[in-house]
Amino acid sequence: MAEKEKDMVASEEKTEETVSGENEEVLEAGTEKEPEEETVSEEPEETEEEPEETSNGEKGGKEKEKKGFRKKSREEKKADALNEKIGELEDKVKRQLAEFENFRNRTEKEKSAMFEVGARSVIEKMLPVVDNFERGLSGLSEEEKEGPFAAGMQMVYKQLLTELDNLGVKPIEAVGKEFDPNLHNAVMQVESEEYESGVVAQEMMKGYTYRDSVVRHSMVAVVS
Question: The pTM is what?
C-alpha cells in the first residue's frame, strides 16, 4: 500500500510539472508576441501625430504674431498719448511765455507812465520857481544887475533852466507866432501895428512842454 501511494504522489508531481511547463511556454509565447503588436500599433500613432505637430506649430506662430501686433499697437498708442501730452505742455509753456511777455511790456509801460506823471508833477512845481527868478531879475536896475547878488541869482537861474532842458522841458515860443490853442491860452485881445490879426503880441506867463506834451500853456495877448 505504501508503495502505491508513493507512485501516485510521484505521478501527480509529474503532471503538475508538465502543466506548469506548458503554462510557462504559453506565457513566453504571449510575451514574445506582444512587442510585435506594439510595434505595429505604434507606427500609425507616429504618423498621426506629425500633422498635429505642424498644425500646432502654425497656430503657435500665428498666436505669436498676434501677440507681437498687440504689443506694437499698445506701444504705438502709448507713444501717441505721450506725443499728445508733450504737445499740450509745449502749448501751455508758449502761452505762459506770451502772457509773461505781455505782462512785462505792460509793467514797463506802467512804469514809464508813472515816471511821466511823477516828472510832470515835479516840473509843474518847479515852474513857479523859474517864474519868480525871472520876475526878480527883470525888476533889477542896470546897476543892481552888475552886483554880486544879482550875478549869483542869474547863475542859479541859468543852471535851473539847463537842468530842465536836460530833462526835456522846453519853453513855448509865443510872441510873434500865430495863435495856437494847443499851446497858447489867450487871456486878452490887443491892437498892434507890428503884428497882424491872430498873432501873439504879448506873453504874460511863459509856457513849457515836456517831451512834446504841454505842461503849462502860455498866457498871451492876441492881436484882434
Answer: 0.53
